Amino acid sequence: MARIARNHLIPALSILPTKSCLSANPSLFASRPHSTPVLGFRRCFSCPSRLSMSLKAGIVGLPNVGKSTLFNAVVENGKAQAANFPFCTIEPNVGIVAVPDPRLHVLSDLSKSQRAVPASIEFVDIAGLVKGASQGEGLGNKFLSHIREVDSILQVVRCFEDNDIVHVNGKVDPKSDIDVINLELIFSDLDQIQKRLEKLKKGKARDSQSKIKEDAEKSALEKIEQALMDGKPARSASLTDFENDAIKHLCLLTMKPVIYVANVAESELAEPANNPYVKEVMNLASELKSGLVTISAQVEAELTELPSEERTEYLKSLGVSESGLGNLIRATYGLLGLRTYFTSGEKETKAWTILAGMTAPQAAGVIHSDFEKGFIRAETVAYDDFVTAGSFAAAREKGVLRSEGKDYVVREGDVMLFRFNV
Ligand SMILES: Nc1nc2c(ncn2[C@@H]2O[C@H](COP(=O)(O)OP(=O)(O)O)[C@@H](O)[C@H]2O)c(=O)[nH]1
Ligand SMILES: [Mg+2]
């Protein structure tokens, strides 16, 4: 049996690789000398070739639909809630916000952690999409390359009437707006696929294994090309798992999951379905097997300017119980099939984001790739059991702390300790 050099048990993590980022509010960082331990590098959720700090959602849509208003509200709200969270604005159009999760604070209190670190989502305000972007109009290809890097797309659709705010096509028309954007994405993918197919035709595979891979990629691309030609997104093509893997490196735009964000007037927030534009978006979203969230970007922006005591009152006066941002984050998590597990100790309690179906070593790899490579076992307890017991030690005594091997599929809310060697 291979000798284990060192055997670690890590309740809390001190050896995360960190990425420094510029903060919009440096004073928040001043109290955190080690910058941003929250941001362990991790796999991109949709394209495996990208190393990503957190889940990345790109906000797209035609000009003047409310993208920047929504983006700013998301980031401001993140700041407001982030007494202890190193949110940051990396660039003017990129912001990182905490994923709200009440379980985090319960665990943190039980473990008497010095800090609680939520999972995070990175929002990107992607400007410049107009008709003809795939041919270089507007910001054209620059814009498209930004979308290639995101895990999910939030497409903001204007459903509010306001004569003072110009609509690029002269009138509010969600179906046409959605078609314009989706067509640009389709054109861009078609272009990329056709170039790739040309290359694959030359067949450079040197061994039988690579040949099998190339063949899978080719057959996948041919299926997708057909879907795109029919005006449908790449994700509508039915591919085998192997074919899916073979094309992941291309990060096709229309492979990415989409949430339509219907931006409505504040007066319609309580009963959005009464708005015929929203109905249209609803129908399209369900036809395209995509998510839908109704939001008023304007209201979200106004909320960030109110003291927190007044926010609930304001929302009540509009007939709703909570701000739309929580919905937006939850919808993104749901659509991507994401799960949360926790690590919890005296140093910190932390929420980690993984994909549904990930095994214990893969989940450990989200923290650090060494944890995946050197994985031995995981000790795990369900969130509710941990809370009832009060600590890992008490959970062990009660027999609810399980020791799991490398095939264990991590469940939502697991509180975990990893044993690994390096
Ligand atoms: N009436 C109304 N105006 C909005 C709403 N959302 C955004 N706007 C306004 O529409 C204009 C364009 O918004 P902006 O967020 O810059 O759009 P972007 O081009 O998509 O980034 C701004 O003047 C916003 O104040 C909304 O929900 N209702
Ligand atoms: Mg904008």
UniProtKB/TrEMBL annotation:
Extent of the signal sequence: none
A Pfam family: YchF-GTPase_C
Predominant localisation class: cytoplasm
Function in brief: Hydrolyzes ATP, and can also hydrolyze GTP with lower efficiency. Has lower affinity for GTP.
InterPro entries for the chain: ATPase_YchF/OLA1, Beta-grasp_dom_sf, G_OBG, GTP-bd, P-loop_NTPase, TGS-like, TGS-like_dom_sf, YchF_C
Name the record gives this protein: Obg-like ATPase 1
Xref: NCBIfam families: redox-regulated ATPase YchF
Family in the record: Belongs to the TRAFAC class OBG-HflX-like GTPase superfamily. OBG GTPase family. YchF/OLA1 subfamily.
Entry GO CC: cytoplasm
Gene name per UniProt: LOC115737387
OBG-type G domain ranges (all copies): 55-337
PROSITE patterns xrefs: G_OBG
One Gene Ontology term of the molecular function aspect: ribosomal large subunit binding
Subunit and partners: Monomer.
PANTHER family in UniProt: OBG GTPASE FAMILY, OBG-TYPE G DOMAIN-CONTAINING PROTEIN
Cellular compartments annotated: Cytoplasm
Alphabetic keyword roster: ATP-binding, Cytoplasm, Hydrolase, Metal-binding, Nucleotide-binding
Residues the record lists as binding ATP: N64, V65, G66, K67, S68, T69, V264
